[in-house]
Design goal:
Largest sheet: none
Oligomer: single chain
Shape: flat
Strand content: under 5%
Order of helices and strands: HHH
Number of helices: 3
Length: 72
């Protein structure tokens, strides 16, 4: 009985830890790892990161533009 109780507590603790990490953005940088596999040199990797930043900025700008249009 004690073993079952300890197992359940440990399982729920690990589940809570995983959910906390996922919400905190711990696993959000998968694209950088994939770019590291695709590009050989450090310069290529930096260019890929810059490209990702530009895409993110464009998406944010698009959202802002859509909000302005809806507000009019």
């Amino acid at each position: 009985m004690l073993e079952l109780g300890v197992g359940i507590v440990v399982s729920f603790s690990l589940l809570a830890l995983f959910i906390w990490a996922a919400r905190g953005g711990q696993f959000d940088d998968s694209q950088k790892m994939m770019d590291g596999l695709l590009f050989d040199s450090e310069e290529d990797l930096r260019a890929a990161v810059e490209k990702e930043k530009k895409i993110k900025m464009m998406r944010e700008k698009k959202i802002t533009d859509e909000e302005v249009i809806k507000g009019k």
